[in-house]
Amino acid sequence: MPELPEVETVARDLQRRVVGATIHDAIVYWERTIRHPQPPERFVAEIAGSTIRRVSRRAKTVLIHLEDGRVMTVALRMTGALIVAPAGAEPDPYARVVFRFEDDRELRYRDVRKFGRIGLWPGGGLRSIGAGRGSRSRRVAEGGRRYRIGEVFSGHGPEPLQRSFTAERLAERLARRSAKLKTLLLDQSFIAGVGNIYADEALWRARLHPLRAADTLHEREVRRLHRAVR
After folding, report:
1. What is the pLDDT of residue 38?
2. Is residue 160 part of a domain?
3. Are 8 and 116 found together in one domain?
4. pLDDT for 158-216, tens place per residue?
5. pTM for this prediction
6. Could you tell me the CATH number of the domain that includes residue 196?
7. Does 196 lie in the same domain as 92?
8. Across the strands, what pairs with 110?
9. Quick one: pLDDT at residue 150?
10. 95 and 15 in one domain?
11. Residue 37: is the preceding peptide bond cis (ω within 30°)?
12. 206: Cβ–Cβ under 8 A, 6 or more apart, which residues?
């Protein structure tokens, strides 16, 4: 399952290859890939004509920022992948959504297990993404229900790669929690983007037992864990 490093690699690759491309249209082969607030047919209608401004990442999700301020979120989950296919490429039987660019290239969302999800969110919500619980964010009404844009990531913790994620900040967060270290590292509300593989790797490098209580770490141990997670 893609974790923070893999998703970051995908986002950087797309940033290099698709920024400036305009989506001519989209084909949805597996409707459940499209998550709310848009039903698939509305998603297709609204994405047509959109130009990609930049690509980034939050936690394990790829964010495709459009020129009009909207953001398309792509959660790869277990087997999802985003592939830029040249014009005339052979069809992919595992492509669940295909975005066709005006230059005849395609951005294919490929997903063997069909667990991934793609969403499209109005502009104005991105600043609230990751702001924490209770963040003030725009609301969107769809199908009689209301969705908070910020709720996409409102429950996620800090990003390990952010400069603000210091050893001191990690120490403060650990001191307030008595959960086992590995359980805590897998908790996306504690740290965003770390999964099973990298939690094990970080604990191994930091020479810390996964069943150790988080609030028992000494300063030197916290610094080792901080270096390992980053």
Report:
1. 67
2. no
3. yes
4. 999 989 999 999 999 999 999 999 999 999 999 999 999 999 999 999 999 999 999 99
5. 0.84
6. 1.10.8.50
7. no
8. 81, 95
9. 59
10. yes
11. yes
12. 221, 224, 225, 227, 228
Give the closest residue to 148 by CA, choosing from 122, 171, 174: 122
Helix 219-229 vs helix 167-175: crossing angle, to nearest 10: 120
67 plus 175 within the same structural domain: no
Residue 126 in domain: no
Same domain, 27 and 111: yes
Q: What angle do CA 54, 10, 31 make, to 5 degrees?
A: 85
In a domain, 157, yes or no: no
Q: Could you give the angle at the alpha carbon of 58 between the alpha carbons of 53 and 208, nearest 5°?
A: 150
Query: In this predicted model, which residue has the larger pLDDT, 142 or 205?
Result: 205
pLDDT at 97 over 50: yes
Q: What is the domain range of residue 177?
A: 167-229
CA distance 82 to 97: 10
H or E element, residue 100:
strand 95-101
pLDDT digit string, tens, across residues 27-80: 999 999 998 666 899 999 999 999 999 999 999 999 999 999 889 999 999 999
Q: Is the pLDDT of residue 131 over 80?
A: no
Give, rounded to a whole angstrom, the gap between the first and last alpha carbons of the chain: 19
**Structural domain count of the chain:** 2
